[in-house]
Amino acid sequence: MDWLTWHDQYDVPGSYLAQRLHVVQERIRLALDASPPGPLRLISLCSGQGRDVLEVLAEHPRRDDVRARLVELDPHNTAIASEAIASHGLDQVEVLTADAALTDHYQDLTPADIVLVCGVFGNITDEDIERTIDTCPPSCAPPTAWSSGPATARLPTGCR
Predict the structure, then answer these.
(1) Residue pLDDT, tens place only, 107-135
(2) Which of 61, 104, 108, 131 would you label with 13, given CA atoms 20 to 30 Å apart?
(3) Those residues with Cβ within 8 angstroms of residue 59's Cβ, 6 or more apart along the chain or in another chain
(4) CA-CA distance, 132 to 8, in Å (whole number)?
């Protein structure tokens, strides 16, 4: 899979990915708005180019409260994310080119106030979905859980 060109669909108005991006960004805005004052921790697994997080933080009044780590395996996408971080002056956000399945990459930010696992479940096996869900709760500060999209039907009962 060419994950760099996969992201091109975000720029196609009305595409599934453009619609999903809008929904995810709105959920991030709402989560930031609803969070109590003070520092916030955010983790994004398989973050791609980080558009969901970076475009929101760039304009959000809580931007300086958020310490974030985006973990993505594809170096082309992390380079794009790094450029966006620099251009938006998001000094408290870092991107790591690494395997997001390895929890050591974000353990120092747990429990996180916002954990994003977006677009992942449609690209992994049912077994890996269950393993991911089992791993997420210790990484999350309450409240937790929101999922949507075609892969939602593949989630174990209680996670929808």
Answers:
(1) 898 888 888 877 666 666 677 667 666 66
(2) 61
(3) none
(4) 26
What gap in Å lies between CA 133 and CA 7, rounded to an integer?
25
Residues ≥6 apart with Cβ < 8 Å to 5: none
pLDDT category at 88 given cuts 50, 70, 90 is: very high
Please answer whether residues 80 and 55 qualify as being in contact, where contact means their C-beta atoms are separated by less than 8 angstroms.
no
Q: Describe the strand order of the beta sheet including 93-97 as a list of residue ranges.
A: 93-97, 66-72, 40-45, 114-116
Angstrom CA distances, 128 to 19, 28, 55, 85, 119, stand at: 25, 25, 29, 30, 13
CB-based contact 124:99 (threshold 8 Å): no
- The one-letter amino acid code at 139 reads S
Give which of 14, 23, 13 is closest to 119, Cα–Cα.
23
Write down how long the chain is: 160
Is the alpha carbon torsion for 59, 61, 64, 70 positive or negative?
negative
